Known about the structure:
141 residues, Aminopeptidase, 8-stranded mixed β-sheet, 4 helices, 30% helix, 37% strand
Amino acid sequence: MEVITVKTDAQYQDALAVRQEVFVHEQHVPPELEIDEYEERAVHFVAYDNGKPVGAGRYRKKGDAAKVERICVLQARRGEHIGEAIMEAIEKEAYRAGFSTLILNAQSHAIGFYEKLGFEITSEEFEEAGIPHVEMRKTIR
Length: 141
């Protein structure tokens, strides 16, 4: 399994395919919310296993922080540390790009996952795309 920074349209389409499967089909997020105005400005990542896309994520600049978004792993592949690998790749790339802070809006059921990675909750629970979330933050070095 490898996580790469997306550099080609084919890789971007692979990332989108995973996002569509997880967010639109599984979690019923409206397609118009899944693909947003930040697509072209974000740095995208895709996880491959034997050439097949199994996970994805992205980050974008928001103020002085890197905002991590769209972290997802295909349902059949959860529990294999793919999400952790994606987050590690994002953190390394964001640090190389000069960021010292990562922020994200975590789905409430995933709080424990992000806490294990060193994120701390910085907000009350709120709803986004019909799903409960909290804002989380991590300082990176």
